[in-house]
Structures are given as C-alpha cells and as structure tokens.
Amino acid sequence: MTVGDLIGLLSACDREAPARLAINPFFPMAHRIGGVIASQDENGNPLVFIAEAKDAEQIGHLPPNVAVQLTWHEPAEAPSRRRRTATPPRDGSS
Fold first, then answer.
1. Read out DSSP for the chain?
2. What average pLDDT does range 27-53 have in this prediction?
3. Where are the domains of the chain?
4. N or C terminus: which one in the chain shows less Cβ crowding within 10 Å?
5. What is the pLDDT of residue 70?
6. Which residues contact 57 (CB under 8 A, 6 or more apart)?
7. Cβ distance 32 to 23 under 8 Å?
8. Is the pLDDT at 11 greater than 90, yes or no?
C-alpha cells in the first residue's frame, strides 16, 4: 500500500473519527496511533511508518466484524441455543 492508497482510503472516512492501528491477526487488538514518520528504506527509497502511541496501550480487542473485513478471521455465527430443561433436585424432592 502506498501513501496515496492510504490517503484515498482515509478520505472516504469521517475526518473526526479516532484512528487506530489493528495489530496481530491471531489475537487482534486495537492500538492508538502515535505518529507518522517519513523515512527511507535501505536502498534510499521513500518509506512512511505509522507508529503506535508512546504509551503503547492496547485499547481492547478489535470488533469481530473488523477482523473479518481484514480477512484475519472467518465470519462466524453464534451457535444456536436450545432451551434448557429444568434439572430435578438431587434430594428427590420436587
């Protein structure tokens, strides 16, 4: 993804919405963005880093729909629940 691609994707979003980083597909968490740094790779090509906030605080788990949209998780439905029957008391009384 290029900076232009990222700008294009972000331009469709609410400018007042907080931005977060989605980290680790196997245990997806959200982190605050701390900064954007322009740099160069080992060949001198331009490169941009989006950094995690200094406090490196995990805000919480990603919403399941975000992990699905990132293709980190498969869509899942909650298992159907059957109505439980009452269990009779163990002492034999009703």
1. --HHHHHHHHHTS-TTSPPEEEE-TTS-EEEEEEEEEEEE-TTS-EEEEEEEPTT--EEEEPPHHHHHHTTSS----PPP-PPPPPPPPTTS--
2. 89
3. 18-69
4. C
5. 84
6. 31, 32
7. no
8. yes
